Amino acid sequence: MQLDDDDLPIGRVLSRRDAVRLLAIGGAAALAGCKPGAQRLAQGTTAAAGSGAATNAAVTASASGALPRCVAKPELTVGPYFLDKQLDRSDIRVEPTTGLAKPGAAVALEFTVKQIANGQCSPLGGAMVDVWQCDAAGVYSGVNDRMVGFNTEGQKFLRGYQVTDVNGVARFTTIYPGWYQGRAVHIHFKIRTPVQAALAGETDKTYEFTSQLFFDDDLTDKIHSQQPYAAKGQRDLRNARDGIYRQGGESLLVPVALSRLGFSAMFDVGLDLSDTQTGRPDRSGGPGGPGGRRRPM
C-alpha cells in the first residue's frame, strides 16, 4: 500500500524573526498558549511550505524579547473524511443508528479557544468546534471508501460539534483513536466562528481553522497493546515518520492525563480573526475530494 495523502499540509511554521515582522503588520494566523513543545518551536523551528500556500502559523513575542505568550499551531488540510453539520453533541462515541458506543479507551477532550488581539489572548465564545476521528480499527463513519475497504455510509460515530461557552471551552467525550496505514495516530478538528454563519453555510462570513491533534508515541504503544486496539496489530507509522506531523506536529501534541473517565486531554488554540488567509478552502479536486485522493491498500 502506498501512503495515504489525505491530509496534505498547508502553510508553514515561521521563524521567530518572520513571525515578529508579520505581527507588526497584523499578519498572525493561529496562536495558542505556550507548552514545552511549543516553546521549542518558538526558538526557530521551521517547516517547508507548498508553493503558493497561505501562511497559517506564526509566533508572537513581546517587543522586549521575552519568551512568547502564544505560539502558533499549523493549519493542516481537512482531509477526505470531513462531513459538515453532523451532530451537536458532546459524547461522540455513540452510533445513533444502534445506540451503541464505540469501544476504546475513553478520553475527555477539552478545547479552549481564544482570540488574539493587541498582543493578548482572550476567551472566544460562540465558536463551532468540529471533531472527527477513526475508531479503534482505523475506520471513519459516514463514508464509502472502496479503496481502503469499508462502507459506513449513514453512520455518525466519532463525529460531532460543540459551541464554545463564554470561557471559550468546548468539551467532548471520545475514545483514543486507532490507526490506519500511512498515518500517525491523530484526531481532526475544525473551528469556525461565528457559529450562526457556519451553520447557515455562509462561508464568506465565516472564519475557519482546521488542524489535527497528535499523541505521544509511548502512550499510544501502551494503549494500542490492549483490546480492542490490539486486534488490528502493530501500527506502521510513528509520529517522526508522518509527513503531516513533520510540518509542526510537535506543537499539536495534546497532553493526556489519567482521569476518572479514563483519560483527559486539554488543548488551547488561539485565533487571529483578522487574518483573511486562514480558513480559505484547504485543497479541493481529485477523486478523494478535499485533501486529495485516497490511495489503495
Which keywords apply here?
disordered C terminus; disordered N terminus; single chain; 297 residues; Protocatechuate 3,4-Dioxygenase, subunit A
Q: Roughly what fraction of the amino acids lie in strands?
A: 25-35%
Compressed to H and E, one letter per element, the order equals HEHEEEEEEEEEEEEHEHEE
If classified by CATH, what would the architecture of the domain at 81-267 be? Sandwich
Predict the CATH topology of the domain at 81-267: Protocatechuate 3,4-Dioxygenase, subunit A
Overall shape = globular
> How many angstroms separate the termini?
4 Å
Low-confidence stretches: 1-72, 281-297
By helix and strand content, what is the structural category? mainly beta
Can you count the helices?
Answer: 4
CATH class term of the domain at 81-267? Mainly Beta
Oligomer: single chain
- The whole-number mean of residue pLDDT values reads 74
Radius of gyration from CA coordinates? 18 Å
How many strands appear in the DSSP assignment? Answer: 16
Percent helix, as a range, is under 10%
Description:
The chain is mainly β and 297 residues long. It has helices spanning 16-24, 36-42, 195-199, 217-224, and strands spanning 30-33, 59-60, 70-72, 94-95, 100-101, 106-117, 120-123, 128-132, 144-145, 150-151, 159-163, 169-175, 186-193, 207-214, 256-258, 263-271. The protein has a domain at 81-267: Protocatechuate 3,4-Dioxygenase, subunit A, CATH 2.60.130. The chain is built from 4 helices and 16 strands. Strand 4 (94-95) and strand 5 (100-101) form a beta hairpin. The relative contact order is 0.23.
